[in-house]
Automatic annotation (TrEMBL):
It comes from the Eukaryota. It holds the Pfam family CEP76_C. InterPro entries: CEP76_C, Tectonic-like_complex_comp. This is Centrosomal protein of 76 kDa C-terminal domain-containing protein. One of its GO terms (cellular component) is ciliary transition zone. One of its GO terms (biological process) is non-motile cilium assembly. Residues 9-98 form the Centrosomal protein of 76 kDa C-terminal domain.
Amino acid sequence: MEWRPKQPTRWNRQCTFILRQILPKLELGTASFVSSEEESEFERLLQFYWVTGFPIQMPYTDVQSVIDAVYQTGIHCSEFPQTEFALAVYIHPYPNNIL
């Protein structure tokens, strides 16, 4: 499926890396587990980029349901030519192998 047929999809790997570090810690229920270094890196990104985004918290059933949830947000519809995307996914396991 081609989500952006008329525009290239550019990925901001630095932002993705930072989000991957932060997401598991946020799942613990408090931002105090996020190190000041990680917080500083993210704040540095905010100085240079206009960031639009949100978490999607949902039960995991399969990959396609996650893809559908992201598509439903319409975040890919940006018309700004310099748009860069970042994506990070964290699935927190619960007891009894519940995802």
